[in-house]
Write a structure and sequence with these properties.
By secondary structure, the protein is mainly beta. It contains five helices and 31 strands. Bound molecules: CU-O-CU linkage and copper (II) ion. CU-O-CU linkage binds next to strand 5 and strand 30.
Length: 465
């Protein structure tokens, strides 16, 4: 058992982690990290509130920021001090199959008391994250997630580099993680959306900023199910990377930053407000449920510079294989299932908690296991277009392991700004086309990152052979 005193010490660590700006990785020949997953306590609601029993990496919620450098080998030893199997998936990193962290498929699960060493060399700079891929609903829902930041080989010029790991908790009145994971009715709808959103593990207090500074803000949506649409009142964030991958800088429509579960956005944020003023950051995704996530609180201080920081330049490109669209083979993947209206409870009862969702009529559920049959076999080195068709009444952030893809079109219209990604958010009934080169051998998962949807059927396997 972990004592309350240990928690108090961890608490100070958490506060320090929130205040700290991520620091670039020191140049090294190899980055060595160790993280341990274990039950712990976190003070999600700030000082005097009750401590919440969580599962945490290294006693921190979120887990420690792992900072490495593009093209430099990384070695991360993961220890399991939970009382159940776990694994770690390095979300968005193009890495060897054996390091992908899917239990049964890429590795045997890490048993309680066991350890697994992940080794890879990240080819791409950007904002990535890590999370378990075993009993994902509970393990992510109880706090296991952390940021993995891969620094560019040459530093990017900004005044501050700030990370917001956004998590969504369903807490009871007593401030404990509510039971009821895997509720079939919820799984057939939006998934387990919580009632408490945290930034870097705490319900957000004001974020102190200085007039005139330019911040690279890394947003990570580590929620199980909550989709976010962030609006920075009085500010015009410029998106420079989607899911870690650089894009042509652009200002999003209506200045809303849309983030489905697992998605990341890097934005350049020029602090053009007035010293001493507070500006709300609103999450405006769900109709009629907008709430202020936090406030940018300007210090009463001289602006850092008078003239502004000038235009936003494109981040250095990552070495992504460019799909040959003329030669690409086209595959249709239809997303099916879920509630279509009517009597939610009665229908959920019929669905029995599995097979609620499907892709092309097949439901694969769980978190990964041996013997999953691929729905497509893609010869290594060939280009492919996946046409994803959402024939459901719900949103789905679809994630492909082991590759990054180019977003081609939405509902038949071309997508501007050269966006790459590893997770693409589909609105109800939306059609999206993505393209990629199947250059990484393995049996790669493609699944919805609303965890309830994944574990109840919205998952498939693409084999690159
Ligand atoms: Cu971040 Cu298979 O997922
Ligand atoms: Cu989904």
């Amino acid at each position: 058992m972990i004592s309350r005193r240990a928690f108090a010490l961890a608490g100070t660590g958490i506060v320090a982690a929130v205040a700290r700006t991520p620091r670039p990785a020191q140049a090294a020949d190899r980055y060595d990290h160790r993280i341990a997953a274990a039950p712990w306590w976190a003070n999600l609601r700030g000082a005097p509130g009750p401590a919440t029993a969580v599962w945490a990496y290294d006693g921190r919620v979120p887990g420690p920021v792992l900072r490495v450098r593009q093209g430099t080998p990384v070695r991360i030893a993961v220890e399991n001090r939970l009382d159940q199997d776990t694994t770690v998936h390095w979300h968005g990193i193009r890495l060897p199959f054996a390091m992908d962290g899917v239990p049964g498929l890429t590795q045997p699960p890490i048993k309680p008391g066991g350890r697994f060493v992940y080794e890879f060399t990240p080819p791409d700079a950007g904002t990535f994250w890590y999370h378990p891929h075993a009993n994902s609903l509970q393990q992510i829902g109880r706090g296991l997630a952390g940021a993995l930041i891969v620094d560019e080989a040459e530093p990017v010029d900004v005044d501050r580099d700030v990370l917001w790991m956004l998590a969504d908790w369903r807490l009871t009145k007593e401030g404990q993680v509510a039971p009821g994971f895997g509720n079939a009715m919820e799984a057939a709808m939006s998934g387990r959306v919580g009632n408490t959103v945290t930034i870097n593990g705490a319900t957000p207090a004001d974020q102190p900023v200085r007039a005139g500074e330019r911040i690279r803000l890394r947003l990570v949506n580590a929620a199980l199910a909550r989709i976010m649409a962030l609006r920075f009142e009085g500010h015009r964030p410029v998106v420079v990377a989607v899911d870690g991958q650089p894009c042509q800088p652009f200002q999003p429509e209506e200045h809303l930053l849309l983030l489905g579960p697992a998605m990341r956005l890097d934005v350049m944020l020029d602090m053009q407000g007035e010293p001493g003023r507070r500006y709300p950051v609103i999450d405006d995704f769900y109709d009629g449920l907008a709430y202020p996530l936090t406030h940018l609180a300007y210090l009463r201080q001289e602006p850092l510079r008078r003239s502004g920081s000038g235009g936003v330049s494109t981040l250095p490109p990552n070495p992504l294989p460019i799909p040959d669209l003329d030669a690409a083979e086209r595959h249709e993947l239809v997303l099916q299932g879920g509630m279509m209206g009517g009597d939610a409870l009665a229908n959920a009862g019929k669905m029995q908690g599995s097979g609620i969702w499907a892709i092309n009529g097949v439901s694969m559920h769980g978190d990964g296991h041996a013997g999953m049959t691929p729905s497509l076999v893609l010869p290594r080195g060939t280009s492919h277009i996946l046409a994803l068709r959402n024939e459901t009444a719900w949103w789905h952030p679809m994630h492909l392991h082991g590759h990054s893809f180019l977003l081609l079109s939405r509902n038949g219209s071309n997508v501007p700004h050269q966006q790459w990604g590893d997770t693409v958010l589909l609105a109800p009934w939306e059609r999206v086309e993505i393209a990629f080169v199947a250059d990484n051998p393995g049996d790669w998962m493609l699944h919805c990152h609303v965890t309830d949807h994944q574990v109840t059927g919205m998952m498939t396997i693409l084999r690159v052979d």
